[in-house]
Amino acid sequence: MTAQLIDGNALSKQLRAEVATRAAALTARGVKPGLAVVLVGENPASQVYVRNKVKACEDAGMHSVLEKYADTMTEAELLARVDALNNDPSIHGILVQLPLPKGIDAHKVIEAIAPEKDVDGFHVASAGALMVGQEGFKPCTPYGCMKMLEFIGVDPKGKHAVVIGRSNIVGKPMAMLLLQANATVTVCHSATPDLAHFTRQADIVVAAVGKRNVLTADMVKPGAVVLDVGMNRTEEGKLCGDVDFDGVKEVASWITPVPGGVGPMTITMLLVNTIESAERAAAAR
Ligand code: GUN
């Protein structure tokens, strides 16, 4: 069996076109949706990510501001910038790129973002809302994974989903979203003694640990859906995920490639959250 590919670029194109239509409608009503992206320090990967986020915003007809600061910026200075953006009516979403330089408490900075502008979904208020099933922003990567399941017509209801990884950004919110969609959810992590024992029972596997070949063909139930959130490099420098793609694609029914799978969906869902925030702000005017 050879799995069908879940094309994150194709789905992103469709969703971003919908965002652009909504952005144009809001702009015509006098509210141009705006995203502020704050980068502190010189992390090369972060520089690429923030550039892509700002470009995606502009391509969708949204306003975007990129604020770049040296790693000498103090926590107090960053908190003051977040406060100013909280009070800026042209900004509907605020994203502080992680990781932050040493000496700045990321939790403190994220908690300073107004929850109604927390388009990353990282604020404790957003995490809490997700936990108790209230309305709030969902973290972009797991939200994108849920959209991919919807796109291929796989309803998690009654299925066994295994999430590998327990980060605040992906693993934990992914488990919550799957649970909310009525899946039976198992969360595995670095201290799970026999990972294959769990993954072999899974109808849906989400791999989100940041380590190559965490999931190999012998660990996958025939016909399972495999979503690969990993972003790693081979010895030759080629981009790859957490899943042994060539092996697993022969066993799974659906699989996301890396690149071109979950990756583009993260930015797409950031745009979706930002337009949502701008629409709420416009409705409240
Ligand atoms: N660093 C890696 N991924 C992300 C993300 O989705 N948002 C933010 N703010 N920082 C990140």
UniProtKB/TrEMBL annotation:
It comes from the Bacteria. The gene is folD. It catalyses: (6R)-5,10-methenyltetrahydrofolate + H2O = (6R)-10-formyltetrahydrofolate + H(+); (6R)-5,10-methylene-5,6,7,8-tetrahydrofolate + NADP(+) = (6R)-5,10-methenyltetrahydrofolate + NADPH. Keywords: Amino-acid biosynthesis, Histidine biosynthesis, Hydrolase, Methionine biosynthesis, Multifunctional enzyme, NADP, One-carbon metabolism, Oxidoreductase, Purine biosynthesis. This is Bifunctional protein FolD. Its EC number is 1.5.1.5, 3.5.4.9. InterPro entries: Aminoacid_DH-like_N_sf, NAD(P)-bd_dom_sf, THF_DH/CycHdrlase, THF_DH/CycHdrlase_cat_dom, THF_DH/CycHdrlase_CS, THF_DH/CycHdrlase_NAD-bd_dom. Belongs to the tetrahydrofolate dehydrogenase/cyclohydrolase family. Pfam families: THF_DHG_CYH, THF_DHG_CYH_C. NADP(+) binds at G165, R166, S167. Residues 139-281 form the Tetrahydrofolate dehydrogenase/cyclohydrolase NAD(P)-binding domain. Residues 6-120 form the Tetrahydrofolate dehydrogenase/cyclohydrolase catalytic domain. Homodimer. Catalyzes the oxidation of 5,10-methylenetetrahydrofolate to 5,10-methenyltetrahydrofolate and then the hydrolysis of 5,10-methenyltetrahydrofolate to 10-formyltetrahydrofolate. GO terms for biological process: L-histidine biosynthetic process; methionine biosynthetic process; purine nucleotide biosynthetic process; tetrahydrofolate interconversion. Pathway: One-carbon metabolism; tetrahydrofolate interconversion. One of its GO terms (cellular component) is cytosol. GO terms for molecular function: methenyltetrahydrofolate cyclohydrolase activity; methylenetetrahydrofolate dehydrogenase (NADP+) activity.
